[in-house]
Amino acid sequence: MPQLSIVIPVYRGQSTLPALFKEIEPLTNEKTTADGQHFVVSEVILVHDCGPDGSDRTIEELVRTYPFVRPVWLS
């Protein structure tokens, strides 16, 4: 079964990331597409781009909440 990685560049994501993860979380369990292909999301990589909001704190909270989150911190 294909395992998918989702890469999300994060800039000013403080207010949108929590809702996005509520939509992504169900995909971390095996799903089937309309044409019968099975898949699962195995990781979500959040690439923090040092935006002016509190995205860094939101990413840290998501890492604590969801075991499939992998943060990448750009300097």
Give the rounded overall mean pLDDT: 96
The dominant shape is: elongated
Summarize the main sheet.
Answer: 4 strands, mixed
Q: Strand pairing plus helix content: what structural class?
A: alpha/beta
Explain how this protein is built.
The chain starts with a strand and ends with a strand. Strands 1, 2, 3 and 4 form a 4-stranded mixed beta sheet that branches. The mean pLDDT is 96. β3, α2 and β4 (69-73) form a beta-alpha-beta unit. With 75 residues, the chain is of the alpha/beta class. It has helices spanning 17-24, 55-65, and strands at 3-10, 31-32, 38-48, 69-73. 25% of the residues lie in helices and 35% in strands. The chain contains 2 helices and 4 strands; from the N terminus they run βαββαβ. The longest helix is centred in the last third of the chain and has 11 residues, at 55-65.
Topology:
Layout: E1 3-10, H1 17-24, E2 31-32, E3 38-48, H2 55-65, E4 69-73
